[in-house]
């Protein structure tokens, strides 16, 4: 459900992208890159539908997921924070099919100067992002893959969870490969670990959507 601040932020983005610069709405299919590290940071993005994965790519070729953004998130704002023209820091990929609204960074900067409330809305959104990134780092700090998986599922419950009669359903279609990439594991290992959780009646999976039956009990499964 979209909260008031999300609606306000969406409205502001639509207003910024009017006049001389018509709204730019783009659709990216699952696994398509939105921008690469090193790309020029020319636009700020507002996520209308779907989920976006932000990751860092290291010299050894390892790619670490730092955030999974849900609908009504803003990203691509590093230049706004530093005050300098900078290149993209993250690799942004469509985790699901996504719909994005974007505006030139200069327009966003001008809107921030003219509208103090927008600055507060952006700050709240970024605070939520930072919290999730910290949780992802904690997830990857677990050496045991079972603990990584459980930590990741709990993050998804927090950010994408929908309460249901059986617990909390993660409102994302998640392949075993996508989960493996997010936690730095392999598809075979993730398949085995999810199977163990299903046998323990901790989770169930229907049409690639995972339902966590008892999140508190699941959190106690850390090794």
Structural commentary:
By secondary structure, the chain is of the alpha+beta class. It folds into two domains: 1-129, Jelly Rolls; 141-218, Arc Repressor Mutant, subunit A (Orthogonal Bundle), CATH 1.10.10. The protein has helices at 4-16, 78-82, 105-114, 116-141, 145-160, 176-183, 187-199, 215-219, and strands spanning 24-28, 33-35, 43-49, 52-57, 63-69, 74-75, 91-94, 98-104, 161-164, 167-170, 203-206, 209-212. It has a four-stranded antiparallel beta sheet with strand order 1-8-3-6. Helix 3 (105-114) packs across helix 4 (116-141), helix 4 packs antiparallel against helix 5 (145-160) and helix 6 crosses helix 7. The protein is globular. The chain starts with a helix and ends with a helix. This is Global nitrogen regulator. One of its GO terms (molecular function) is DNA-binding transcription factor activity. Keywords: Activator, DNA-binding, Transcription, Transcription regulation.
Please provide a brief summary of the model:
The protein has 223 residues and is an alpha+beta fold. The protein has helices spanning 4-16, 78-82, 105-114, 116-141, 145-160, 176-183, 187-199, 215-219, and strands at residues 24-28, 33-35, 43-49, 52-57, 63-69, 74-75, 91-94, 98-104, 161-164, 167-170, 203-206, 209-212.
Please give the largest β-sheet.
4 strands, antiparallel
CATH class of the largest domain: Mainly Beta
Proportion of beta-strand residues: 25-35%
Provide the number of structural domains: 2
Helix/strand order: HEEEEEEHEEHHHEEHHEEH
What integer is the average pLDDT? 82
The largest sheet has its strands arranged as: 1-8-3-6
Q: What structural category characterises the helix and strand content?
A: alpha+beta
Low-pLDDT parts are: none
Distance between the termini: 34 Å
Helix content: 40-55%
Tell me the number of helical segments per DSSP (H or I, 4 or more residues long).
Answer: 8
């Amino acid at each position: 459900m979209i909260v008031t601040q999300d609606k306000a932020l969406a409205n502001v983005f639509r207003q910024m992208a009017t006049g001389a610069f018509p709204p730019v709405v783009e659709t990216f299919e699952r696994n398509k890159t939105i921008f690469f590290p090193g790309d020029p940071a020319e636009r700020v993005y507002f996520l209308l539908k779907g989920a976006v994965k932000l990751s860092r790519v290291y010299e050894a070729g390892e790619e670490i997921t730092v955030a999974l953004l849900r609908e009504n998130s803003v990203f691509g704002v590093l230049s706004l924070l530093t005050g300098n023209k900078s290149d993209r820091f993250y690799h942004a990929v469509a985790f699901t099919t996504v719909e994005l609204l974007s505006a030139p960074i200069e327009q966003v900067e001008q809107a921030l100067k003219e509208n103090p409330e927008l600055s507060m809305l952006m700050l709240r959104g970024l605070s939520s992002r930072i919290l999730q990134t910290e949780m992802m780092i904690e997830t990857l700090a677990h050496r045991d893959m079972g603990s990584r998986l459980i930590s990741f599922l709990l993050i998804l419950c927090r950010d994408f969870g929908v309460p249901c009669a059986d617990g909390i359903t993660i409102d994302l279609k998640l392949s075993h490969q996508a989960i493996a990439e997010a936690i730095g594991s392999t598809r075979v290992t993730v398949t085995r670990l999810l199977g163990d959780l299903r046998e323990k009646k901790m989770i169930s999976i229907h049409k690639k959507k995972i339902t966590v039956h008892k999140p508190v009990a699941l959190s106690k499964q850390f090794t």
